[in-house]
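tmp note - Threonine/homoserine/homoserine lactone efflux protein
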Amino acid sequence: MSLSAFALAVLLLLLTPGPTNTLLAVSGAARGLKASLPLIGAELAGYLTAIVPLVFLAAPLLAEQPVASLVIKLASTLWVLLLAARLWTRPPSATEPGAITAATVYGTTVLNPKALIIGLALIPPASFAAPETLVVPLPYLALFALLVMVVATCWLSAGAAILRRVATTNPLLFGRVAASFLVVFAISLAGRAIGWI
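out:
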């Protein structure tokens, strides 16, 4: 996957509402952008904690096991669909903004299924087998880190600017729009996993 295609895929994935983005937006709404900026570092640390071992250890092993890799990608698709169903039926709310700390954002991000998708499906796995086939995904990781910081700032800003109004005036619509984005991504992920895309 080229860096530009990778950037687009990661950008769409990171912009998709999910557990970490919800925490960022709620914190932006509750505390404002400036006070919530430290959460960006917590999110980036959480993603790298999950993704680096996947890229350097798990993905190279799974490259030799295409069936296992397919099962993991399809399981990720099912998880994203489950998240979409939850957002559709129970939209997020800003009722507990005080509980959002850097540790909460870090832990949520480590467990975020987006990390699994990015680490196993989007970033090329590291390969040190032979010098002519050396693959070190550092440019992908650097671009990923930059995109995380940009998108996290957008979520914090959106929370500070509009979440309070939208979530209180029409929470069901908010949840259903977010769920729709997740479904589109799940279909795309499944299509790539089985070779349709």
